[in-house]
Amino acid sequence: MDTNSSFISTGTYCPTGEDCTSDSNKYEYFYSLSLPNESEQIESVLTYELGYRHVTSDFELDGTIYFSQYDNIVGQEFIGIHPDYYQIDVYQSSSDYVVDSFGVEVAAHWIITDTFGLYGAYSYLTLDQDWQPSGNSNGSSVDYFSIDSQHIASMQSLWSITDQVELDMVLRGQSIDYGNQSELDNFLALDVRLGWQHTPASPLVELLVKNLGEGEGYYEEAYGRYKQEQSIALRVSHAY
User: How far apart are CA 80 and CA 90, in angstroms?
Assistant: First the structure.
């Protein structure tokens, strides 16, 4: 991030009392003016990591535990409303933040038969942010980087039904707790791919279904505007 220049950006917000989920036209625009800060420090990170790997002819397991300490994390602190333009929020960057992160990652691959295999993955993450005040900082971004807990898991199957037909499925889910005013619902989603190729030299025809059976939709990020919903696509590709 450039902390020595001023720049203006635009965004949208949902006014209080409005239902912007069903009618996206109710979103309104706002502008943000970010001011430079000559006292910025260079961000740095120190990471400790311990990993394990187990491999056999038909099974592979990888695991990692890590702890990271981030210094001089840059946050955008709210200063106030522009004195001449009420629709412009004024921010200033500040590097008076530190973050400690702890995480676990596990991945596995199991070849059950010559035509069927499974992939699995799981990750856990927690972020603990703190503010180290200085004369140029007000601490308004103190909770922005914190995550009490985040769990992400997925299971993927690869099945070659015949030499011409393949069926792949991915089941994935997320559970996250930001620990502040931000909220995000947990989700569990299923993606399906059905592929057909008559010969290795023929075009590949694929039916792709994302979020199978998802009726209400879900958000993958706390500040996401668009919901993830069921989508169906037909794709034809040819490699030569």
Answer: 5
Specify whether the backbone of 161 is left (phi greater than 0), alpha (psi in -120 to 50) or beta.
alpha
Euclidean distance between CA atoms 233 and 208, whole angstroms: 5
Pairing of strands 28-35, 88-113: parallel
Question: Exposure string (b/e) for 162-201, b if CB count within 10 Å is 16 or more?
Answer: eeeebebbbbbebebebeeeeebeebebbbbbebebeeee
**Local confidence pLDDT in tens for the 240 residues of the chain:** 555 666 666 777 777 777 877 777 777 766 666 666 666 678 899 999 999 999 999 999 999 999 999 988 777 776 667 777 666 777 777 777 889 999 999 999 999 999 999 999 999 999 988 887 776 777 677 777 788 899 999 999 999 999 999 999 999 999 988 876 667 788 999 999 999 999 989 999 999 999 998 878 887 776 666 788 899 999 999 988
Tell me how far the alpha carbon of residue 44 is from its chain's centroid: 22
Calculated CA dihedral for residues 28, 20, 209, 190, nearest 10 degrees: 120
> By three-state DSSP, how is residue 26 classified?
helix
Contacts of 30 (CB under 8 A, 6+ apart): 10, 11, 12, 13, 87, 88, 89
24 DSSP assignment? G
